[in-house]
């Protein structure tokens, strides 16, 4: 067992974990953040994407102890208390949501991109979500939604 | 006519819960005191089996190992034929057939127990080539013949019409099986309500079918089975057959506790159907003006070890064999055949997806032989309002294929010769 301290969605947790616990299992089974999805368990699909210290990671490929001292954002931490995040709104408005299983990961990849690059080109958007599979194959709408989200974010400022 | 939805932008009802990550897929449901389940699957394509679960049952944390002996009612299911067993009793017919279901208090015990279930396989000759499987002398997967369906379509007289053809092309096409790979692997949780009703939460395309199949396997009335279909993370036809629903229901009923199972991606590949691979032999002919006169096709669909929707899929392949072209003389024979391959069933298009590989290639080859551009050739032969299909249906409503072809040709930069004033 190992003691770790990490921040998830702005809340600090002190936890005792087994060394072989994956970050995804800690987030889902222990902390209840079931918006983190497991699609393949080997870093191919990106459904388990979370933001760790500003960068996206596949939480199925990160061991929980590696998140010691880190700040994690899951889909549950994207919205504010009053309203959903502009990226979430853009996904809804554009119709970028189908089965929904890739959606949390897509939104987090979009957030990590827009946090650093507020005016990405479509090419940059495509590159940013290249680690996220959508098997409903709704990629065009997802790219549209991220473009729209960039506009919403600028208007909001 | 006032339309309330068509033409308007409607935000899907489950959209908000999905963008917030709050939509519940079965793997997101956790219950007090729940047990974990995992399926042991066949590693052989065709074999007689003997199962010994005694070592697995001794593992700390294991509550029970379920096999065919624990199915209270009918040990079978299937959307058309009841050819799947809930748990294989004597024989496995494909890699991935379910043999046992381990239920334990923790995931580790489940994994350990799966490893120590002894399955003694006595291999039987297997057949993987549907052409071989069709032969009289082939080993049989179920019953007396591996040919489970033969669809015949006859229109006009192809033999006579081929004699009048200026150009004829003949070729064979093969399409592979295809995996749906919906993003959310199968998962489910089952529990018992106070009045004994068994509840199964699983992402499914057929809750009402599942209810019947679960009730028959449990030997209870249908009203004692409830299927809850939470969010479905993609399906594309791959969730039309039973996977874990009956296993979970039996385990919940016998143990009296909630039982949850989540498939890995690998198990998901093993558990559900595939798109039928097809062998398509085509002969198509036209006159010197490029008017199609005759088509003959033989289509063989490999349904693997189980029928699933094979009959409907191969019928649809046969019905759509001409593609969107009016051909006065047509002969089609399509077959669904059992083999020891992974089983095939529904997948996006249901048999109509494979045949274009063949009929469109035929169109390209005919136009090439005629020295006619392929767009013009197609426009000469496509269905229009009033056309009669090979099955005799008169298309009375809108048939805007011409617009579609022209639009596509335009966007990929091909202008039909006929519109360029060229020779056709």
UniProtKB/TrEMBL annotation, chain A:
GO molecular function, one term: 2 iron, 2 sulfur cluster binding
InterPro entries, per the entry: 2Fe-2S-bd, 2Fe-2S-bd_dom_sf, 2Fe-2S_ferredoxin-like_sf, 2Fe-2S_ferredoxin-type, 2Fe2S_fd_BS, Beta-grasp_dom_sf, Diverse_Oxidoreductases
Transmembrane segments: none
Pfam families, A to Z: Fer2, Fer2_2
The UniProt record lists the keyword Iron: yes
Coiled-coil ranges per UniProt: none
Known pathway: Alkaloid degradation; nicotine degradation
Protein name: (2Fe-2S)-binding protein
Keywords tagged on the record: 2Fe-2S, Iron, Iron-sulfur, Metal-binding, Oxidoreductase
Organism, scientific name: Thermohalobacter berrensis
Keyword check for Iron-sulfur: yes
2Fe-2S ferredoxin-type domain location: 2-78
UniProtKB/TrEMBL annotation, chain B:
InterPro entries named in the record: Ald_Oxase/Xan_DH_a/b (IPR000674), Ald_Oxase/Xan_DH_a/b_sf (IPR036856), Ald_Oxase/xanthine_DH-like (IPR016208), AldOxase/xan_DH_MoCoBD1 (IPR008274), AldOxase/xan_DH_Mopterin-bd_sf (IPR037165)
SMART domains named among the record's database cross-references: Ald_Xan_dh_C
Entries under SUPFAM superfamilies matching the protein: CO dehydrogenase molybdoprotein N-domain-like, Molybdenum cofactor-binding domain
Molecular function (Gene Ontology), one example: oxidoreductase activity
A Pfam family reported for this protein in Swiss-Prot or TrEMBL: Ald_Xan_dh_C
Domain Aldehyde oxidase/xanthine dehydrogenase a/b hammerhead: 20-125
Domain of life (superkingdom): Bacteria
Protein name, as recorded: Aldehyde oxidase
